[in-house]
Amino acid sequence: MKMLMMTTMQVHYVFLILLIFSISIASCSIVSSLEGPQIGINYGRYSSNLEGPVIGINYGRYGSNLPPAEAIPSLVTSLSIKHVKTFDLDPRITKSFANTGITLSLCIPNDKIPSLSTNLSEAESIIRNSILPYHKSTIITSISVGNEVSLLPQFSTHLVSAMVNVHRALKRYRLHKKIKVSTTHSLAILSRRFPPSTAIFHKSIGESVLKPLIRFLQRTDSPLMVNVYPYLAYKQSFPSIPLEFALFQPMNSPKRRRYVDPYSGVAYTNLFDIMLDSVDSAVKSLGLPKIPVVVSEIGWPTSGEPGEVAASLENARVFNQRLIEHLRRRWNKVTVYIFALFDEDQKTGAAVEKHWGLLYGNGSRKYDVNISPPI
Ligand SMILES: *[C@@H]1O[C@H](CO)[C@@H](O)[C@H](O)[C@H]1NC(C)=O
Ligand SMILES: *[C@@H]1O[C@H](CO)[C@@H](O)[C@H](O)[C@H]1NC(C)=O
């Protein structure tokens, strides 16, 4: 989770467009129940991921006193979750999920990207050592080549070739159908987000990195992975976006607000759908067909800097619970990985970075969310 690392200019820009957003939301303010607002746009061949929503969880390990690898699967299962995303390729973790029925999404560390881009043997050696011995008993579904590197030139220029080589290496071991190769992006890849139908990628990476990257994903039938944080958009634009809009407003609230995209006419009742549609629009703006999007990180913090009042146990509970309900209802199915399994007290940076867990380091729940039945 490095989304806070946006340039000042980007933050400024986001703020400006959010101001526009706040004006529109005021002007369409309170709308009595209209029949099912049309959510999302759909211009491509993928109308949905037919299987329904999948809810997984991120397992980050920058915490002191976290439980040992062997204890993780039962903690995950106790949350009624069956899908886990990690930030590395640690064989101890991969092994601990053997024969549990829990799927794993793994990640190759950023610093491997430059060498992977030119060295196919290096990619083969990673697959041979970190995947081949384990894939028969552990269900490995995807590998992210790096984490949120698309705006970092020292990695982004090598990113697509590295992904191609990892895919080739998987192919060599006939695992390429089973294990998808992708990479996670922060939403800072968008230079414009609002209105969602007008969203575009940063000029510096749109044509040069993201276009070939998305083409690779389409060719290999792999999803685009983005980290979507309504909390950060809410915070960066404070006080433009109503908190309830970021927290998925309750369905039955008489004060339910709508934001109508002035160009597409699509009505939104929550920030999450706006953020997802902005990704779709940016893909479209590159002249590419729609691609399935996996939300590789999403969540709400329980604590932050003094005065960061929206970061609270209650808001985190409400956000995650309503997110799950929203995903079950949403016509356009999407896979999300909640951030995160544990609080991570060793994270540096803003205080808020440490408090995204559903569980304390000792394994007890910080608050109750009901995810069952597991999906
Ligand atoms: C490529 O990777 C292999 C396997 O990791 C390594 O032995 C070799 O030295 C690398 N080649 C170059 C040119 O770095
Ligand atoms: C786990 O840690 C939390 C926070 O430090 C604490 O409130 C709770 O009592 C602990 N639970 C157990 C079972 O030790």
TrEMBL record:
Enzyme class: hydrolase
Annotated keywords: Glycosidase, Hydrolase, Signal
InterPro entries on file: GH (IPR017853), Glyco_hydro_17 (IPR000490), Glyco_hydro_17_plant (IPR044965)
EC number(s) from the headed UniProt entry: 3.2.1.39
Reactions catalysed: Hydrolysis of (1->3)-beta-D-glucosidic linkages in (1->3)-beta-D-glucans
Transmembrane segments: none
PROSITE patterns: GLYCOSYL_HYDROL_F17 (PS00587), PROKAR_LIPOPROTEIN (PS51257)
GO molecular function, one term: glucan endo-1,3-beta-D-glucosidase activity
Any GO BP: carbohydrate metabolic process
Secretion signal, residue range per the UniProt entry: 1-26
Taxonomic superkingdom: Eukaryota
Family to which this protein belongs: Belongs to the glycosyl hydrolase 17 family.
Name of this chain's protein: glucan endo-1,3-beta-D-glucosidase
Species this protein is from: Capsella rubella
